[in-house]
Amino acid sequence: MSEQQIDTQPRTCHTRDNVGVTANASVYWAIVDPERALYEVDVLPIALADITLNSLRSYVGSMQLDEVLTNRKQLNERVSADLIDTGQKWGIRISRVEIQELAVNDDTSRAMLQQMEAERKSRATVAEAEGQAKAIRMTAEAERDAAIEKARGEAEALALIAQAETAYLAQISQHLSEEKAAQLLTAQKVLAGYNTISKNPADKVFLPNHFSGVFTLPTNNNRTT
């Protein structure tokens, strides 16, 4: 015979965490043994709807609310499997069971919405905090890298200056003693320093009357031995 469908009436079931859930289902079935279907059960559609709801209520009662709401396919398969043996006794074949409604009461619905909103805000707060932490880390890393590059550049510059001074000393030492060559280089640095600090017209710079004791300029070009 052709496949038929019955829709159960809504029934309140209670989950393992004691939340009331209104559930109903559609059962798709076909008679394969008319004699059994007639004599093994009083009113087949009503009896089929009753055992469907009983099975559904049993499985809902074994699950937490969030499991019930997120595992409808699993519930369909479990209830369908439960009906197969009984269906054979009654001369019918169960094709499938489809749960049509899983609804909580208004109080539970409001509580769930509040929980969802709280979780959304929590996720937003965490995301914002993570973003700020990431920005701080990136800024710190950028500053660290800049400081490293600056220090590296300054070190390279100092190394080049030292190399240049060494070469300069070597050159003038050909005409002066090493001591006098060093004094000449020191004198040049002192004069360069005064030149630098006196560039700002707002600053007052007091120069000494003489530089004796600071450095001694070489007085001849003869190289001492």
TrEMBL record:
It is a single-pass membrane protein. Its main location: membrane. One of its GO terms (cellular component) is plasma membrane. It is found in: Membrane. Residues 3-133 form the Band domain. Belongs to the band 7/mec-2 family. PANTHER family: STOMATIN-LIKE PROTEIN 2, MITOCHONDRIAL. This is Band 7/Mec-2 family protein, putative. It comes from Luminiphilus syltensis NOR5-1B. The lineage of its organism: Bacteria, Pseudomonadati, Pseudomonadota, Gammaproteobacteria, Cellvibrionales.
